[in-house]
Design a protein that fits this description.
The chain has 282 residues and is mostly helical. It has helices at 13-36, 69-105, 107-121, 125-136, 140-167, 170-177, 182-193, 195-218, 230-237, 246-273, 275-278. Helix 5 packs antiparallel against helix 8. The longest helix has 37 residues, at 69-105.
Length: 282
Amino acid sequence: MSARFDIGRPGGFGLRLGLGLGLSLACLALALLGLIWTPYDSAQLSVVERLQGPSLRHCLGTDHLGRDLLSLLMRGASTSLGVTLGAVSLGAALGVPLGLWAAARGGWPDEALMRANDIVFAFPSLLLAILLSTALGPGAINAILAIAVFNIPVFARVTRGSALVLWSREFMLAARVAGKSRLRISLEHVLPNLAGVLLVQLSIQLSLGLLAEAGLSYLGLGSQPPVPSWGRMLADAQTLTALAPGLALYPGLALAISVLGFNLLGDGLRDRFDPRLTRPRG
């Protein structure tokens, strides 16, 4: 009888984690390399070389302005992932302390934070990002702020829910009996025990943030020319797909692989930190 392995079952968490980590690191490496080196200047125009196919000179071909597609893809990775990492990091930096504070205080501060979160969650995340980017104006910094806004309540709610479970444990009571303040308990006992949960949520929000950044750039609300991004590349390719399919294929694949990598990484980390999923079945 042949053995069967399913990546979607709990036993396959190691494969999910390894594959997700590999894809995520590959995308991050491409973005870092794009910051320091590209085969050509991504802003260099060459009308005589426009819409060329893959060749020894341009391994992925050129776009409608004669720019090297590989260089655009590498610089676009730097922009898209840079905006996403900045937005998610800002959301976590504000949301996690809010969640810790609400769980530690309880009462009306906790209730007020949760109702404020409900108001933000009432709007679709991408629609809210579009509204904020339109109000603030297009640009990478404003895109970071717009994406960070819907990340703050996500991290606040996840942190608060997990922290409330920890506050009911016996070791927390021992820490309070020892005379530690709620702030000290939150920093020394609650936050370290939330590291696994927050890492999982961070990976998931990176995938969602990357899609949001691509959507904003596609609509012209993200990074502005001549700074390339994957969403901007997709927008430029929409009328030229029949002539040069690679213009949409390459940034679309890069975006799909990055989102898949972050999602698999989040699933693998969740399975790794959840003992119920790693426990062998009888």
